[in-house]
């Protein structure tokens, strides 16, 4: 799953990584991004077709759902295109959530040890996401997850769907709506580009937010 991540790239490096036209925005470094907060995401607007970096609420609830409806932070790749709750957003409102790494917890001798997972080369990660207008009229999103691969599999059975460079543009293409077409054009980042290390349990507390959170714990 993906329930906590870090995102601290500045806008120029983020735009360079995306390699697509992106309306300029401002970013605040965050080392402990938790659900139920505003997060940065790249999406294409329905009216102008322009790509922009916007603030989306990390919690997905469609505008037609009532107050008792769930607010998932993740959507599985196995069901996102067919679930009535998600399929409309999958077809029309896909987005990219930039991150530098994410956290998972590994059970070790009766306790849970947090690990930080990131790219070996330090480049930003692009999580596949979907967004929807919430009942309050503001945009909310969910991050897609898939079965864990490579080194991530040793920490947790699932991981965010991280897209490779060639998949970013088609993922954001509003003309692509069919599940099978998207499946053939969109691919995840090769798992051998990922690494991880144990970090401080301070990350367990969402109020903790500083660069030391991603440092390896000896």
From TrEMBL:
InterPro entries xrefs: SRAP, SRAP-like
Key words of the record: Covalent protein-DNA linkage, DNA damage, DNA-binding, Hydrolase, Lyase, Protease
Superkingdom of origin organism: Bacteria
The UniProt record lists the EC number as 3.4.-.-
**Per the similarity annotation, which family is this?**
Belongs to the SOS response-associated peptidase family.
Protein known as: Abasic site processing protein
Organism for this UniProt entry: Billgrantia campisalis
